[in-house]
Specification:
With 88 residues, this protein is α+β, with helices and mostly antiparallel strands. The chain has three helices and four strands, in the order βαββαβα. Helices cover 35% and strands 23% of the residues. Strand 2 and strand 3 form a beta hairpin. The N and C termini lie far apart (30 Å).
């Protein structure tokens, strides 16, 4: 398992559009992607509804965990997932 902390920069937080984009990237990933508040429970990120239950607001730091030992894959996924956490 490889984890990274990220800050949600989208003005609406991890709400409908960012959650949908994030979950779409997670669902296409070749490994399980989990998201949660730092030190809190994590949910599978392949469902926007699960992400919405976290009620993550702008400026909050989250932990994203990937169920893989492949560092190159993890780096690539973290970069893709981070694009869903900013305003477009």
């Amino acid at each position: 398992m490889i984890s990274k902390n990220m800050v949600v920069q989208a003005g609406v937080g991890l709400h409908a559009r960012p959650a949908a984009e994030f979950s779409q990237i997670a669902a296409a990933a070749p490994c399980e992607v989990l998201v949660g508040r730092i030190g809190g429970a994590q949910v599978k990120a392949n469902s926007p509804l699960r992400l919405l239950t976290l009620k993550i607001k702008q400026g909050e730091e989250i932990t994203v965990s990937l169920n893989t030992d492949d560092n190159a894959l993890a780096q690539s996924l973290f970069e893709k997932l981070s694009t869903a956490l900013v305003d477009k």
